[in-house]
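Following the same procedure, sequence and fold were stored together, as reproduced here.

>
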Amino acid sequence: MQEFMTYEEYLRDVKKGIVTDLGNCPVTPLLIMLQGKWKTQILYELCIYDTVRFSVLKKDLAGITNTMLTNALRELEADGFINRVQFNEIPPHVEYSFTERGRDLMPVFYEIMRWGFKHEKDKLGNKE
């Protein structure tokens, strides 16, 4: 598969089956890395703040525990989406920001947002 494919090429080639070098659907690796309730919400917070402290994420993500936040941040860092910088000051603090790989998700989130607004009145996922 070529490195970059236009949307028109995608529409044409998807009918033949587009797979990675490992034989997977090319969307699967990203979906696996982003699975879970909190990862996309954390990345969205980084879209808002650029650089954000753990305590701000904790405050903004209602219902998340310290353990869940720590685990999600570690996984996002391990997958190369975010940077973690620890400041050994008094009081110590940690700041998170996007890596270049993480910033590459911004157009993807933009398209998902557009889809969400287009279909927000649909019954999709509505609990009502």
DSSP finds seven helices and three strands in the chain.
